[in-house]
Amino acid sequence: MAETETTSVTxxxxxxxxGDEHDPMVGKKSMVSAASTWDDPAAALASxxxxxxxxxxxxxxxxxxxxxxxxxxxxxxxMFAGELGPDRDFYIYSRxxxxxxxxxxxxxxxxxxxxxxxxxxxGMSAISSVLLHLCTSGGHVVASRTLYGGTHALLTHFLPRxxxxxxxxxxxxxxxxxxxxxxxxxxxxxxxEAVSNPTLAVANIPELSRIAHDxxxxxxxxxxxxxxxxxxxxxxxxxVVHSISKFISGGADIxxxxxxxxxxxxxxxxxxxxxxxxxxxxxxxxxxxxxxxxRIPHLGLRMKEHCNRALAYATRMKKLGxxxxxxxxxxxxxxxxxxxxxxxxxxxxxxLTVDMETEERANxxxxxxxxCTQFGFxxxxxxxxxxxxxxSGSSTSSELNDEEKELAGISPGLVRMSVGYxxxxxxxxxxxxxxxxxxxxxxxxxxA
Length: 448
Prior knowledge:
The protein has 448 residues and is an alpha/beta fold. Helices cover 37% and strands 14% of the residues. It starts with a strand and ends in a 7-residue tail after the last helix.
């Protein structure tokens, strides 16, 4: 993105238990820049607050306490009345705010270029909390036809049954369809993925945001597939959600999510009386937050290599005659759109798909890739250092019925690959070619 703007970074002061504004510990805990120039997610992360450990360690301490003491009896009343809070380092209970989780939340806000963020126990808890906050009974959502299966099930089955919230699914490429589906005065939000799961369609975030905002509708974007690559809030989105479990974690060992947006949104979602993040309790464990905060600083390096490998494999797969879909290829329908929106230097994403047309061929290819040549693993999720593969129609998109899959563009043999970066590129490519040769020898694939 060429546009540069200044984003405030909240600096939390040290403990003021006695109310002394000149506490000598305050200076040490506030050694960060109060503002950063946002032109790149990595630069924003580098300019955000660095939390030191309790004894001056370069890594922050883990605040494992579930509850927090007060030094004066009247302080607790003031905290519950909203007069004292985390902005002055006063904490009530870790389901509300926890210092370690709050630090990770600041990193997520810096990453996405938003005023604030809040980290949750899973990506689905982040998504469901946002939807429940922005919609009321009788509310309406306009959403992309192509969504992660769990999100699709939430919108299709759970919310209508439990909350009387309905959804109209649309083709995001048909802007007139999007516009006509938004009912002024009734539609609460427009929901879509920046890069769709699993078809890798790229959303026109600026134009979709303009359409929604013209009708007074909030825009919520899932950026799980494209952290660092795209910054939806800078392109017009109001709220950005993540499954941190994926690329941001990178280790396939943590379940976590995040909501990024305006400070007023996060504060409202944490309201003691009716905030869904507070009332429903999708609380992130402080030890998980610590682990994740140690991984975010090298997210940019990891994403660049994920993207580099994905582009290299997609280019070579296409030359072999495979039906490969990747936004970095010039024949991808939204290739130029992604180039116009993407943060420079991060590539086109770490996901690609290979359409084998039938589930039998897809399964056979994945079996050879894992069990014969060790190219990758048959597993759901994404963002791991090993390549992960799944047949989307029968796995992560199985919540969609056959008609919904067809409308979403998900073929029975669509193999989704989260491209890893372990080993050398040539080593891993050789493993792919060997598996493809075995598939051709089996008679299930014609020679390219």
